[in-house]
Amino acid sequence: MKKNKRFRLLGDIIGMAAAFLIFVVPFIFILSNSLKDRREANLLQLALPETFVWKNYSEVFTANNYILLTAFKNSILLTVFSVGGLIIVCSMAGYILQRRKDGLTKAANFVTMMGLMVPPAILPTIWITQGLHIDGTMFSMVMIEIALQIPFDIMLYRGFVGTIPIELEEAGYIDGCERLGMFCKIIFPLLKPVTATVIILNAVSVFNDFTNPLYFFPGRKNATVQLTLYNFMGQYQSSYNLLFADVIIITIPMLILFIIFNKRIVDGMVAGSVKG
Amino acid sequence: MNRKRIYPAWFLLPAMSVFLVFFIIPMAVSFFFSMTVWDFSGFTFCGLDNFALFFSERSLSHSVVNTMIYAIGTSGLKVILAFFIAVFLTSGIRTKNLIRSIVFFPNLVSTVAVGMAFKALMHPTKGLFNQIIAFFGGHGPDWLGNVDMALYSVILTDVWKGVSVATVIYIAGIVSIDKNYYEAAAIDGANGWQKLKNITIPLCRPAMNSVIILSFIGGLRSFDLIWSMTGGGPGFASDVLASVVYKQYAAGFYGLSTAGNVIMLILIGLLAFPLQKFLLSKEVE
């Protein structure tokens, strides 16, 4: 028994050391270099800064006429609208797809499950938004983000609705509850745990999305945080201090989210992937 | 009780109409536009010319091979590494939750940021990787500048960022295994390796299948990490289908770009669907 204990302690130490070296050191590297002056940061050393240059951070914010502020505004709006829309449309659809079994729901199930695998057709989507005269607008970007997340979210909601006893609805129906009212008052509140998962997972993926804004949301006034970081890479190629300061700024919201919702994020990802 | 009346079909309408307009219709018309030369406002039909060009031009056809290497490389490494990390973390060590959180966090960092950081770490002369190698007397490679190496360097970064998702899926699978099996095996005198091979691996098969499918499809579709680390370079050495789609779009060859998109779709259809069928059939046994 004693040997076993010592063995485990060794495991703890080795595990922590490996995790620290492989997964934490890169972040320390980024943080430390974001606080160096330009010359020192460009040496790309892991060492602590000789002097802490906090003004890197203000410089990143003021760069290109405060584009980072525009980017944060756009990214936050995009995230809020997309996640809000997704909750409404996917909770309704997931509920019906779980409860009602007929040809229509079978077809809907099939297309959404296919959507989990198939890559989006990008240029035709731009063509559609142009045809609707909404290309390059926040509205079209929100719609596209929603369309791309629908399969995953419907799957989460459908799975969770299966755990809600059906008697509740039958009772509500007999009591003469109107259908939309019943959904809003009885079902939706019961979906709270999965809604929380949907909020967190989608917020992370929409906020971190780079590819879709690159295609569908071009132009300076449409900057998002990920696009801004990408453009900084071209512009400040030789100023790693500023680049890393930008990385830290856009990573902090995710870090806060992770510290608060650690368990929910991890469980949500497992639930989503195992059912798929 | 009339089920259809309690569960109105119009509840599906908002989700399905958005999905139809912004996903299904674009996908359907992509097959047509991949056979045209077009610029959003007008098109001329050109049959399969785009596909013929795609496979005859090495800078383009090479991306299909790279996409396969990338998908197999990332999913293979994740399937194996994540399994051992998961076994390690479920072996009763006390710092399990802390280590899991540390391993998981990179997953929430934006891909562009990860790409940028690793580009700096992989700098041929100043980068931390090569400084460590030099410290031990070796001579580090040009991770991202070497034609034969660039794609593999990006694969390693992808695994660093994404191994955690696979790990937590495995952990969920391993934790759900009935403890009685292990006790019975211990009474029969099985050693650790035998328990791993005969209990853990077969019984976390469903988790393993999820990991394989998810990371394989993710690998086939991957774009942002490659784009932010190498831009498909040097030359076109690390171009994958998704980066060719973007490059041809940026160059104004919309028909060719759409053809690349369709090839990616067909590749996923040809590989991922049968793979999933195959894995699920194994699971039942």
From TrEMBL, chain A:
Pfam families: BPD_transp_1 (PF00528)
TM region(s), chain numbering: 9-31, 76-97, 109-130, 136-157, 186-207, 240-261
Domain ABC transmembrane type-1: 72-261
Keywords: Cell membrane, Membrane, Transmembrane, Transmembrane helix, Transport
GO biological process terms on file: transmembrane transport
SUPFAM superfamilies (alphabetical): MetI-like
PROSITE patterns membership: ABC_TM1
Classification via CDD domains: TM_PBP2
GO cellular component: plasma membrane
Membrane topology of the entry: Multi-pass membrane protein
Keyword hit for Transport: yes
Keyword Glycoprotein: no
Cellular compartments annotated: Cell membrane
Family: Belongs to the binding-protein-dependent transport system permease family.
Record's protein name: Raffinose/stachyose/melibiose transport system permease protein
Organism phylogeny: Bacteria, Bacillati, Bacillota, Clostridia, Lachnospirales
Automatic annotation (TrEMBL), chain B:
Name of this chain's protein: Raffinose/stachyose/melibiose transport system permease protein
PROSITE patterns: ABC_TM1
Transmembrane segment boundaries: 12-33, 68-90, 102-122, 149-172, 249-273
CC terms in the record's Gene Ontology section: plasma membrane
Family under the similarity heading: Belongs to the binding-protein-dependent transport system permease family.
Topological category with respect to the lipid bilayer: Multi-pass membrane protein
Residue span, ABC transmembrane type-1 domain: 64-275
InterPro entries: ABC_transporter_permease, MetI-like, MetI-like_sf
Keywords of the record: Cell membrane, Membrane, Transmembrane, Transmembrane helix, Transport
Cellular compartment(s): Cell membrane
GO biological-process terms attached to the record: transmembrane transport
